[in-house]
Prior knowledge:
The protein is mainly alpha-helical. The chain contains 6 helices and no strands. Helix 3 (49-70) packs antiparallel against helix 4 (80-95).
Amino acid sequence: MARKKPGNTPPPASTDVEGWRAAIKARQLPYFRLEDMIAAIQDLKDVDEQVKSKVAREVNDRFFRILRKAVGRNHPNSGEDIIHRTIYKLFEAIGKPNSNDGRALRKSCYSLIKLRMIDAIREKTANAARQKISSRPAKRPMTKRRRRT
């Protein structure tokens, strides 16, 4: 039996709780597009926490895989701080569906993931540069030396 490719399986409607329950039970979440799962999280606000948390876990895992491939291990802490900061920002946007990022995640989330990753890298390098400057020891004031006689 040939394995289905992600993105080819039609997902349930974003407001269909029973459809999402059936998809979770049939283990079909890995085959749905990321944008469809994000729309479901945003539309299933107060309906069923268990369904929403399982879909959110799948979205989180996908975010992590995408970012792990994109963020180099040459950053401090192998880039883990950058990845977690980016995922936090993305989930903030998912929680605010009327924000610009919240609407963009429903349409094409991969470009927004890359954009937020770049922002996190810039923020991390700017903070590292600031810490490096502030951790330098203060220069002692110049004093006149006494000559030996």
